[in-house]
Amino acid sequence: MTHPRTTAQRAEKGLRSTLLGIVANLCMVAIKALAGYFGNSYALIADAIESASDVFTSFIVWVGLRAASKEPDQDHPYGHGKAEPLAAIMVALSLIGAAIFIAIQSVDHILTPHTSPAPFTLIILVIIILVKEGMYRYTNRVGSEIESAAVKADAWHHRSDAITSLTAAIGIAIALIGGPGYESADDWAALIASVIIVINAYRIFMPAFTEIMDAAPPSDFANEVRNIAATVPQVQGLDKCLVRKMGFEYFVDLHIIVDGNLSVREGHDIAHAVKAEVMRQKPSVYDVLIHVEPTYL
C-alpha cells in the first residue's frame, strides 16, 4: 500500500511555488541590475547577482522536485526521494558561492573611490524587500506543508534576497544622509549581506545533509507511529521503531510483540493490520516494514 497521489500532489505544490519564484526572480534581476547601474549602487548590483543565483537554484529545486516525485523503479526500488535534499544542498552551496563573489566585489568597490548612489534606488529597494519577504512567507508555508527541504531552501533564498535588499537600503540611506565621505556605505552593506547569506546557506545545508545521512526525524513522529501501532488488536507491545525520511515520504521499520502461541498466518495478519493502520493515519508514510516478536504468557 503506497500513496502515489499524495506524493504527486505534494510535488505539484512545490513545483508551482518554485516556478512562481523563478518568474519573480527574473523580474527582480532586471529591476535591480538596471537600477543599480543607472543609480550607481553596487549594493543593488550585488543584490541583482544574488537574485540571478536564485533563478538558477530555483531551477535546481524544480528539477529535484520533479525527480523526487517519480515512482520507484527497478534501479531505484525505494524511489527517487534523495533528489530532493540533494537539490537543497546544491542550493546552499550556490548561496555560499554567490556570497563569496559579492564579498570580493564589495571589497574592491570599498577600495575604489566612487560617487554616492541615486536616491531613487532606495525606493526600489523598499518595494523589493516587501515582495521578497512575501515570497519567502508563501514558499516557506508550502515547504512546511509538503515537508520539503528543497522548497524550504528555496524559501530561504527569498528571505536572503530580502535581507540583502534591506542591508543595501540601509547602506544607501547612510550614503545619502552622510554625504561626502560615506559613498562606500552601500558597499559595506553588500559585504555584510554576504555574511548573512552564508549563515542562511548553513541553515539550508544542515537539515538537507542530515536527511541525506538518514538521520531520524523528530521523536514526535516515531512516538505517533508507536501510538497508532499499539491500538491494533492483539499487539501486546512494541520494540524498535526506526524512521527515516526520503524526499516527501517516510519509511518505518517497526518491531511488534504478539502472543507466541499464534500461528504464522495470524502473526502475518496482525503485521498487515498494523501497517495498514499506520499508513492510513499518517499518509506521509510510504512503507512500513514489520518484524514480529513472539512472547509467551
TrEMBL record:
<keyword id="KW-0812">Transmembrane</keyword>
<feature type="transmembrane region" description="Helical">
    <location>
        <begin position="20"/>
        <end position="38"/>
    </location>
</feature>
<dbReference type="InterPro" id="IPR027469">
    <property type="entry name" value="Cation_efflux_TMD_sf"/>
</dbReference>
<keyword id="KW-0813">Transport</keyword>
<dbReference type="InterPro" id="IPR058533">
    <property type="entry name" value="Cation_efflux_TM"/>
</dbReference>
<comment type="similarity">
    <text>Belongs to the cation diffusion facilitator (CDF) transporter (TC 2.A.4) family.</text>
</comment>
<feature type="transmembrane region" description="Helical">
    <location>
        <begin position="86"/>
        <end position="104"/>
    </location>
</feature>
<feature type="domain" description="Cation efflux protein cytoplasmic">
    <location>
        <begin position="217"/>
        <end position="294"/>
    </location>
</feature>
<dbReference type="InterPro" id="IPR002524">
    <property type="entry name" value="Cation_efflux"/>
</dbReference>
<dbReference type="Pfam" id="PF16916">
    <property type="entry name" value="ZT_dimer"/>
</dbReference>
<dbReference type="GO" id="GO:0008324">
    <property type="term" value="F:monoatomic cation transmembrane transporter activity"/>
</dbReference>
<feature type="transmembrane region" description="Helical">
    <location>
        <begin position="162"/>
        <end position="182"/>
    </location>
</feature>
<dbReference type="GO" id="GO:0016020">
    <property type="term" value="C:membrane"/>
</dbReference>
<dbReference type="InterPro" id="IPR050291">
    <property type="entry name" value="CDF_Transporter"/>
</dbReference>
<feature type="transmembrane region" description="Helical">
    <location>
        <begin position="188"/>
        <end position="205"/>
    </location>
</feature>
<dbReference type="InterPro" id="IPR027470">
    <property type="entry name" value="Cation_efflux_CTD"/>
</dbReference>
<protein>
    <submittedName>
        <fullName>Putative transporter YdfM</fullName>
    </submittedName>
</protein>
<feature type="transmembrane region" description="Helical">
    <location>
        <begin position="44"/>
        <end position="65"/>
    </location>
</feature>
<keyword id="KW-1133">Transmembrane helix</keyword>
<feature type="transmembrane region" description="Helical">
    <location>
        <begin position="110"/>
        <end position="131"/>
    </location>
</feature>
<keyword id="KW-0472">Membrane</keyword>
<dbReference type="Pfam" id="PF01545">
    <property type="entry name" value="Cation_efflux"/>
</dbReference>
<feature type="domain" description="Cation efflux protein transmembrane">
    <location>
        <begin position="19"/>
        <end position="213"/>
    </location>
</feature>
<dbReference type="InterPro" id="IPR036837">
    <property type="entry name" value="Cation_efflux_CTD_sf"/>
</dbReference>
